[in-house]
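Run log // design_07
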């Protein structure tokens, strides 16, 4: 085999090895980035389990504040309870917890859990009428959806209702009314 051919084969193999090495290096860099991103994501949401256990406590503090008798509300004891609630809320906010605003908003199944569907003159259909239990997000990810009552819309008008003269005369098939 001539020396020239041998040199060409060697340089071709060298080029292949260099390309292979460059691909392996790029793959390794991408792997490192992916692992680092996963580690950051895991660190962000590692506290989620503990926070989920603390949220009912925060709910209880809020319910206690809202239902506290006026006679007790001004006492030092009641002020201490309110302070504890504020500290807990502040602590959770610093860790990326935010309350889901739901009242009068459009129902969103990703953020809300519909507990009831009620008629309302105040809210149009599909709007959240009332919040039963607050929902929370952790770094823009829903941790616990808000439990809400959703509006059906306006109540039926009297002309839509069954006429009073035929109300007591319904038989087996409610779609047929006779006098």
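design_07 sequence
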């Amino acid at each position: 085999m001539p020396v020239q051919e041998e040199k060409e084969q060697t340089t071709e193999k060298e080029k292949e090895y260099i390309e292979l090495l460059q691909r392996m290096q790029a793959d390794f860099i991408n792997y490192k980035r992916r692992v680092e991103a996963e580690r950051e994501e895991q660190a962000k949401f590692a506290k989620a389990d503990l926070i989920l256990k603390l949220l009912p406590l925060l709910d209880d503090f809020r319910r206690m504040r809202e239902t506290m008798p006026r006679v007790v509300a001004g006492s030092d004891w009641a002020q201490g309870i309110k302070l504890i609630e504020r500290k807990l809320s502040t602590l959770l906010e610093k860790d990326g917890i935010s309350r889901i605003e739901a009242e009068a908003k459009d129902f969103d199944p990703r953020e809300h859990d519909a507990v009831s569907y009620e008629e309302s003159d105040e809210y149009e259909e599909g709007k959240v009428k009332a919040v039963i239990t607050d929902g929370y997000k952790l770094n823009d990810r829903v941790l616990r959806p808000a439990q809400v009552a959703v509006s059906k819309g306006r109540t039926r008008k009297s002309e839509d209702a069954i006429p009073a003269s035929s109300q007591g005369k319904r038989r087996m098939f409610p779609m047929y009314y006779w006098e």
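The mean pLDDT is 83.
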